[in-house]
Amino acid sequence: MKFTINRTAFIKELNNVSRAISSKTTIPILTGLKLVASEVGLTLTGSDADISIETILHADNPDNQLAVESMGAIVLPARFFSDIVKRLPEDNLTLAVTEGFQTEITSGNASFTINGLDANNYPHLPEIDGTDSITLAGNVFKELINQTVIAVSTQESRPILTGVHFTLSGNELMAVATDSHRLSQRRITLPESASTDHDVIIPGKSLVELSRMIGDDNPDVEMRLSENQVLFTIGDRLFYSRLLEGNYPDTSRLIPTESTTTVEFDAHALLSSIERASLLSHESRNNVVKLTLDPAGKTATIFGNSPDVGNVEEELAASGFEGESLEISFNPDYMKDALRSFGQTVIRIAFTSALRPFTLVPTEDQTNFIQLITPVRTF
Question: What is the pTM of this model?
Fold first, then answer.
């Protein structure tokens, strides 16, 4: 096996594949990167058994400057190989595999020899036999992930909550995540109906890595589901993830349908205010920020307090006041995550009582995106 390739193009795909490679895996060969040189091009594969990423650098793409002299396959130690490639002196590199899986990497006057492994021992990628596929614009799918993955649980005590619950029914795709303290739900209407319904839970960690692979200029993302795996296709990149097993809790009953107090805020302005208040609340043991609403006086006020440092009080610009006066406390970090997911828009917050969860929705689209936060009892 021997090939020459443009180093910049190679590093770009090497970085993508490396997202799936972990040094902590119990299968030693999975700490390596699999390279396969063929007539079509150079295929890179990385996996940690939960996530697998495969990408191809095509020989007919002039940007790759790929010339395959002899075909073959090798598995190389990912961390060492990546460090070497990033520090080579010239724009191109040549990789040649000799006897006993010894691999020579040359660029300019620099030459490295590292020990490889037999690629035949590398686990095969999952076979996705599902016929149903969903195609979404890259920016839409990235937004869906970023809006929901903030609410997944980081506690392994309830593994099912460490994933995002995707349901596909007809032409509607819904994604929900909750850690039992907050919830995020996003609904998307698809251009075509799926032939069968699906109900799957995708690990939050997988979706975070997938989101990082979707650039601003990326083409559509295709999602294909099978019984225990999901495959995302982004151009020439394939991203596999295992699915979580079990039944996701029924979250629809958690979202209140009525409210006693509603108020509208500019999401960015509210975020800035809570960031200022949390400067002090983070110094306190309970990390709580309080919001008081007075519909009669049309005032909204944020309080942050730390017994050791001091306190902050700020009156907020708000509109659309309806209902009763209210005083409610919440975790500012949950609120900040929720507000960031709305971007630059006006949101409506609906409260039912000081101890019941409240919802945040964009005023322009109140049914397709909902964030829910459980308040903190302070008395």
Answer: 0.91
